[in-house]
Design goal:
The complex is a heterodimer of chains A (about 280) and B (about 550). Chain A has a two-stranded antiparallel sheet. Chain A is elongated, with a radius of gyration of 22 Å. Chain A has one domain: MetI-like (MetI-like fold, Orthogonal Bundle). Chain A contains nine helices and two strands, in the order E-E-H-H-H-H-H-H-H-H-H. The longest helix of chain A is centred in the first third of the chain and has 37 residues, at about 65-100. Chain A has helices spanning about 10-30, 65-100, 100-115, 120-130, 135-160, 165-175, 175-215, 225-230, 245-275, and strands spanning about 1-5, 5. Chain A is mostly helical and about 280 residues long. In chain A, helix 1 crosses helix 2, helix 7 (about 175-215) runs parallel beside helix 8 and helix 8 runs antiparallel to helix 9 (about 245-275). By secondary structure, chain B is of the alpha/beta class. Chain B contains 23 helices and 20 strands. In chain B, helix 16 (about 390-400) packs parallel to helix 18. Classes of the chains: A mainly alpha (about 280), B alpha/beta (about 550).
Chain lengths: ~280, ~550
């Protein structure tokens, strides 16, 4: 298999397959799910296949498959929104710090240092218990916390680029800050940022799952994978597979995204060699 | 240095007639990442006698480093020796097992790299790094190695040879580090020393000293050498024979004197001529009373370090003012002050009599437009993600508000002006050669329709013939458009060719300035004279003559 003239390794093919399947599931959930996410349709904790339920039922007798599909919609949707927000915030501020430097860089960097000094999960737990666990708050908190990492990367990459003579030439021409960031720096910083996007998506996705598992993420009755693990956790004691299904889904998507990122990083290495 | 001429040829030469190193039909290939083979060196024959120095000369990509490294049975990453025979002292290098071949390296064939700074471990003392290889190879004990290194320090004339080895690489100058690296290569008493552009990164005045030191050491020990460089004048001082290479093939080989004085091939004749070109008579009488640019009493510093001390420079319309000096003389800082990147601590920069705001942010778009800049490294002066069209279109849009068809036509006109043609508009910088990139940089400056272009060593990263073409282009543009150039360079040969007026800088001060004729006519300022005398000339005996003159002067002063 080839994409844009590049041969795909087996790992990359698997990764792409996983990512595409998950995105399709999230997009098409309302149309392909046999039931809604709240409908109680059968006995409690039916095993996969039993009573015609492909993935069985959960602790309230809801169809597991339908909840997994809707859960993909929620978990992936929130994680993606968080990542896009954190990238917008983090990269704009990071490039700004790199290009302007001086006191602006100092202030932004110290704020980021402070935020990064506190463990993300604990800070998120604190803020969510104080403000209440609604989805907008959840997205805002994760986006801001995640943007610190993006800031660091963008600043580092941006500083390498900002000293290039083509940036100096743009400054000598009289170009504004925004133009320099958007046209001179961003296109050259894009490759590492795209790779980082995949990784940050994984972190955001895992963080949301963890928060939901702890009861501070997505609130019932809405399905999300982390919450589904928690809801069905007690089933483990009875040897029932229900909690393992969302847990496996979390694991598979994380690995799939990582495989795609690895492939893209390899691609960059080659195109960089190529352009020399 | 007095014993140098008598030892010429080397003591070992008489003993053995068989060449020390022989290559027959050498072929080196690399694999592109798409799997296609790239041929780097084709069918090169080479013979090196004991105690002889062979100069390998050619432009970048000619394969000179590849050939020299192949003598060690080594190729750079991705490349392979795919054909030919390499015999070193009767040993067939290509058939030797890996560990035997490795033993030869450093022990009997040693290598001196271009960038000494990148070749030393910054965390270890020089002496510890120099004695590492003989001890590791079991050639001599550490005490013997130290003694030998000390002897080499004396011969290479490093300052304070007794304590030199105790220093760390950052504590010595570039020229000293290059000598330390020569000592490191010579400490095992190799039969062949490979020198890969050892003086290219050095200032002219330092280059002479290193060149003389290296030559004497080679002669004293009868060591054979492969000397790689792109500078014919430099290689002529040290080599017995010269091999001229182009695109991985041998063009011509002969005695150094024959190559310089009676080159047979057209390509060699071009190389010899490139050093001798003259573009401009340089009358130096400025035709207009009103200077375009006036730099008055400028002092500038980076943090607490003062780099410029009261610099005054004037540039008149339509003239080329060359600013010369060695690295650290403040010539690039002067450019940063003029462009506004570095606001001066005191003093003013005037343009057509009007004081320019010191900082970039305070200057109007029109003030910015009229002073443009061309850089030394065209690779980093062009945004690799912008097509040539975008690079050239932006200043046209920005300063002149061109759009649509007018914009496209203006870009094509610019490309025609730099002799490249509209087809290049769609290319990315990665798809251009070094000279083409520099042409695009020139076109970007022209797009602004400036009065003054600051050229910061625009040709020093380019090959000789490409550099010559760029200079001719700059000259033509000046004649056609009445441009003034502030031309920063360390190359006095270049200054002689292109300048109307010359500013000589040293340690952030102007030591001499005036019309070219006046500056270069004796008696010049002593520093100017030193710089002038250090420019390698295209004749075999130049180095000997310079050293003799200097020795004579020193005697006279005593």
């Amino acid at each position: 298999m080839r994409i844009a003239g590049h041969r795909l390794s087996l790992a990359a093919q698997i990764g792409l397959l996983v990512v595409v399947a998950n995105i399709l599931a999230a997009l098409l959930a309302p149309w392909i799910a046999p039931y809604t996410q709240t409908q109680q349709v059968g006995g409690v904790w039916l095993a996969p296949g039993e009573g015609g339920f492909l993935l069985g039922t959960d602790q309230l007798g809801r169809d597991m498959l339908s909840r997994m599909l809707y859960g993909a919609r929620t978990s992936i949707g929130i994680a993606l929104t968080c990542t896009i927000l954190s990238f917008t915030l983090g990269s704009v501020l990071g490039f700004l710090a790199a290009v302007v430097g001086g006191w602006l860089d100092q202030i932004l960097s110290r704020i980021v240092d402070t935020l990064m000094a506190i463990p993300v999960l604990i800070l998120a737990l604190l803020v969510l218990s104080a403000l209440g666990a609604s989805i907008p708050v959840l997205i805002g908190v994760i986006a801001i916390l995640d943007s610190t990492r993006v800031f660091r990367l963008s600043r580092a990459v941006g500083m390498d680029i900002a000293v290039m003579e083509y940036v100096e030439a743009a400054r000598l021409r009289g170009e504004g800050l925004w133009w320099i960031i958007r046209r001179e720096i961003l296109p050259n910083a894009l490759p590492p940022l795209i790779a980082e996007f995949g990784l940050r998506f994984c972190f955001a996705f895992l963080l949301i799952s963890s928060l939901s598992f702890l009861g501070l993420g997505v609130q019932p009755p809405f399905a999300d994978w982390g919450g589904m693990v928690r809801d069905n956790a007690q089933a483990m004691e009875f040897g029932i597979v229900a909690p393992l299904i969302p847990a496996a889904a979390i694991g598979i998507l994380t690995i799939g995204v990582n495989l795609v990122v690895d492939w893209m990083l390899g691609l960059q290495g080659r195109t960089m060699e190529d352009s020399r | 240095m007095s014993d140098a001429p008598t030892a010429a040829g080397g003591p070992a030469a008489a003993k053995d007639d068989a060449p020390l190193l022989t290559m027959r039909g050498l072929r080196v290939e690399a694999t592109g990442w798409d799997g296609s083979p790239i041929v780097i060196v084709v069918d090169v024959d080479l013979e090196l006698q004991r105690g002889q120095v062979l100069g390998l000369i050619g432009e970048s990509g000619a394969g000179k480093s590849t050939i020299a490294l192949a003598a060690m049975g080594y190729t750079r990453g991705g490349a392979r020796i795919t054909g030919g025979e390499i015999l070193f002292d009767g040993l067939n290098i290509r058939e030797l097992p890996f560990h035997t071949r490795r033993r030869l390296r450093g022990d009997r064939i040693a290598y001196v790299a271009q960038s000494a700074a990148a070749s030393f471990n910054p965390a270890k003392r020089l002496m510890d790094q120099i004695v590492e290889s003989p001890v590791l190879h079991g050639v001599m004990s550490e005490a013997e190695a130290r003694e030998r290194a000390l002897d080499l320090f004396h011969r290479l004339q490093v300052p304070d040879p007794e304590t030199f080895g105790l220093r760390y690489p950052h504590q010595v100058s570039g020229g000293q580090l290059q000598r330390a690296m020569t000592a490191m290569a010579m400490v095992c008493c190799p039969d062949v020393l490979i020198l890969d552009e050892p003086t290219t990164a050095l200032d002219v005045t330092t280059q002479i000293e290193v060149l003389a030191a290296v030559r004497d050491v080679l002669r004293d020990f009868g060591t054979a050498g492969l000397y790689i460089t792109h500078d014919l004048a430099v290689v002529a001082q040290i080599s017995d024979r010269i091999m001229v290479l182009q695109h991985g093939r041998k063009v011509e080989e002969g005695e150094a004197r024959q190559i310089l004085e009676e080159p047979r091939e057209a390509y060699t004749r071009d190389l010899v001529a490139a050093r001798r070109f003259h573009v401009k008579p340089g009358e130096g009488e400025s035709t207009t009373p009103n200077p375009l640019l006036q730099v008055e009493g400028v002092e500038a510093s980076y943090g607490a370090v003062r780099v410029l001390h009261g610099v005054d420079v004037e540039v008149h319309p339509r003239e080329t003012v060359a600013v010369v000096g060695e690295s650290g003389s403040g010539k690039s800082t002067l450019a940063r002050v003029v462009t506004g990147l570095l606001p001066p601590g005191s003093g003013t920069v005037r343009f057509e009599g009007e004081a320019l705001p010191p900082a970039l942010a305070g200057r109007s778009r029109d003030q910015l437009r009229r002073i443009q800049m061309i850089y030394q490294m065209p690779d980093v002066a062009l945004n690799p993600r912008h097509r040539v069209f975008d690079t050239l279109a932006r200043p046209l849009q920005f300063y002149r508000g061109l759009r649509g068809t007018a914009l496209r036509e203006a870009v094509h006109a610019l490309l025609d002006d730099i002799e490249m043609g509209g087809d290049y508009a769609r290319r990315f910088p990665g798809e251009l050669s070094g000279g083409q990139k520099q042409r695009v940089c020139i076109a970007r400056a022209l797009a602004a329709e400036p009065d003054l272009i600051i050229c910061d060593e625009p040709t020093s990263a380019l090959d000789q013939l490409v550099a010559e073409a760029i200079l001719k282009l700059l000259q033509r543009l000046q004649d056609e458009r009445g441009l003034a150039y502030l031309f920063i360079t360390h190359d006095l040969g270049l200054v002689k060719a292109i300048a109307d007026r010359v500013v000589v800088m040293k340690n952030g001060e102007v030591v001499q300035q005036g019309p070219k004729k006046q500056v270069f006519t004796p008696p010049a300022h002593p520093y100017t004279e030193l710089l002038l005398a250090s420019v390698p000339e295209m004749r075999v005996d130049w180095l000997d003559d310079v050293l003799r003159t200097r020795a004579g002067k020193e005697l006279a002063e005593r």
